[in-house]
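Course assignment 3, question 2. Fill in each field.
Student: A.L.
Task: Predict the tertiary structure for the chain below.
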Amino acid sequence: MKKTIIAGRTVPAIGMGTWHMGEDPARRAQEIETIRTGIEAGVQVIDTAEMYGEGKAESLLGEALKTVERSRLFLISKVYPWNASKKQLPISLDKSLQRLGTEYLDLYLLHWIGSVPFEETVEAMEEAKKSGKIKNWGVSNFDTSEMKELWKVKNGKNCVVNEVLYNLGSRGIEFDLLPWMREQNLPLIAYSPLAQGDSLGNRFHEDPLLQKIAAAHQCSIEQLLLAWAIRDGKTIAIPQAGTPQHVKDNYAAGSLVLSAEEWQELAEHYPKPTTKQSLAVL
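Answer field:
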């Protein structure tokens, strides 16, 4: 199983996302079983946010985790930009902790950039660290220029991660953002590593090259996409899963080993960008 280091902790590079979870009562039991199955398989990093179902995903996750030893997990949640002020962030954080049924988060992220100055958000995050309610903090959906601005802020370099959209069909960050993050030794959390199936305009399942490589490894194309996303050892992918079998398949992708020739074929077939691209956001 490929692993990576985030905030000084070594974790499996395949985590679990929870967007849209908890919104359909008819799926609640299966979603809880899926989360628990993922943890039993070895998943440690679980990503959620106050935005997801306006707290419903956090509540579902909290229910699923009641029987799980907290120290096994690396829990991430996110705060809305308009709640990222010195006054509102502690309130949002407390609500998230209550829904999750935990005393602390391993990581708390600013979900995207809003109108609250970076200086104020950083100060609020640092206070949350001092209180013990979060271990570390980071950001999401930040492009290169915004990361550089954050780095100029007092304690801005205490940011431990940037979570952005990244998959085989969306490689825009490789032009400047990812190289900058690597220079800073800042790990990446890749959301939508499966490109939401083919819904983002890709045709992965129709691609003869992906079909060939997947067949050679007796794996699914989804597993191949996940293995690609975490290939550098400095990225955590957080795919979503709707069923227990799905989450087990996702996690197994962390053990997939491709040859140098196969990596090269993928690199040539899906080339990295040669010019600056706008940051892809969902």
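Instructor remarks: The two ends are 28 Å apart (CA to CA). Strands lie at 3-6, 9-12, 16-17, 45-47, 74-79, 107-110, 137-140, 162-165, 188-191, 235-237.
Grade: pending
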